[in-house]
Design goal:
The protein contains 3 helices and 10 strands, in the order H-E-E-E-E-E-E-H-E-E-E-E-H. With 227 residues, the protein is α+β, with helices and mostly antiparallel strands. About 29% of the residues have low confidence.
Length: 227
């Protein structure tokens, strides 16, 4: 029976493709076979010297990387605040501070020291040499902010806020942190703060910022990073 020319060409092309593929697979296996080893791997027995008794087994190429099913991605290590300076409002550059929040670069810094006439309070301060803007950080060890059942007494914290006038104009509890508050303005500066409540009976940490209204976004960034 005569084979049509078209089918004959197709058969020749298919045969060529199979020959090329088989050669490529054998070459790939040869490149991945370790040299100088005293024994062959258990999964890849050495070929026999006789080729007439049986045809060589077709090597199985290693699956491409894309075919593997990856495990869950490893998350990037968490970073506290920003690892490098970040310029924000009005050219102020924030850098990582020593107490768990960012501070404006170049401001005068007073390290954490015991507050006068107390034995359970420490305070640190940052002030802008060019204006009255400032950051105040307070650490207080006290049981006075807890109720009898050791839960946080928000009313007692509100009554002790360092606002020039009380009550604060805004007082909102942030879950997992503590009260976020706003005091009445002082000398043209907006006053905002955050209280981080510690487990009973450790007390609390407080961060308060007094800065111009135009820098409210900067203050929000500082308080959001307070941890």
């Amino acid at each position: 029976m005569r084979i049509p020319p078209g089918r004959l060409k197709l058969a020749i092309v298919v045969a060529c493709v199979l020959l090329v593929t088989g050669a490529a697979l054998l070459l790939a296996r040869h490149r991945h076979t370790p040299h100088g080893s005293g024994k062959a791997a258990a999964s890849s027995p050495a070929p026999t010297t006789s080729t007439s008794s049986a045809a060589p087994a077709t090597p199985t190429p290693a699956p491409p990387h894309s075919a593997a099913t990856p495990g869950p991605a490893t998350p990037s290590p968490a970073r506290n605040a920003s690892p490098s300076p970040k310029t924000t409002a009005r050219g102020i550059t924030l850098v990582d501070g020593p107490y768990g929040f960012q501070v404006p670069q170049g401001w005068a810094f007073t390290p954490l020291t015991t507050v006068a006439n107390t034995n359970n309070s420490q305070a640190a301060h940052w002030t802008d040499p060019a204006s009255g803007a400032r950051l105040d950080y307070l650490v207080v060890s006290t049981q006075a902010i807890y109720s009898v059942d050791h839960t946080v007494n928000l009313a007692s914290i509100e009554a002790a806020l360092p606002c020039q006038q009380l009550p604060p104009t805004s007082y909102v509890y942030l879950s997992g942190k503590g009260p976020r508050y706003t005091c009445p303005p002082m000398g043209g500066l907006n006053v905002n703060g955050l209280v981080l409540v510690k487990p009973y009976p450790q007390g609390f940490r407080l961060l308060q910022a007094e800065m111009p209204p135009a820098q409210d976004p900067l203050v929000a960034q500082i308080l959001a990073g307070f941890h």
